[in-house]
Amino acid sequence: MNIYKRHRFPPDIISYAVWLYYRFNLSHRNIEDLLAERGIIVTRESIRLWCIKFGRLYARRLKRKHRGYGDTFYIDEVFVRINGKQHYLWRAVDQDGEVVDVYLQAKRDGAAAKRFFKRLLRSHGSEPRKIVTDKLRSYGVAHRELIPETIHSTKQYENNRAEQSHESTRVRERGMRRFKSAKQAQRFLGAHAAVSNLFNLGRHLIRSEHYRNLRTSAFAEWGMVVA
């Protein structure tokens, strides 16, 4: 199926604009200017619609191609205010820093924790060997009822990996001047996580030559996803 059918601009331009939006802290206006500098005249509204439509499609393809997550999940929740109402963004990352799932909910009680854990189990395909959380009691409820055989650690500072993973979301939230709705936030964060995982190459941990090889592989995979 040709996902670009009836679009006036070629796939290379559309996929490049979507990549810029989810890879960097850029607004639709910023991307409009970057494309204009290259002689490509497209409105920010068209770019916004591309990001909504194709961001979801690309994220779905990236998840299908993903090679799997680690066996340890670091889980945390952070509040997000949308239209004056407080929501909670639940996030799980593995030991390599890859985002397993992000899920926006109105509460952080036991029922909300169980919903999130069920999503994690579907994404992972099996129970993790270990989960690391803070001392929120809702995690204990979900752990006892859904994955009682999994090791559950609540040691102080051990969950810093998940807490630090929220930083990129906060940066984008400020750049977007807050999320406009829960649906928009969930749609954006899901696509953002999938793109981030692909280009999460641990640049500060590896030699430059190895990093360049990994980056080349990431671009090649991205090219297959957007084809």
Automatic annotation (TrEMBL):
Q: Which Pfam families match?
A: DDE_Tnp_IS240
Ranges for domain DDE: 73-199
The protein's UniProt keywords, in alphabetical order, are:
DNA recombination, DNA-binding, Transposition
Q: Which InterPro entries match?
A: DDE_dom, IS_Transposase, Transpos_IS6
Q: Which domain of life is it from?
A: Bacteria
Indicate yes or no for the key word DNA-binding. yes
Per its record, how is this protein called by name? IS6 family transposase
Q: Which organism is it from?
A: Candidatus Litorirhabdus singularis
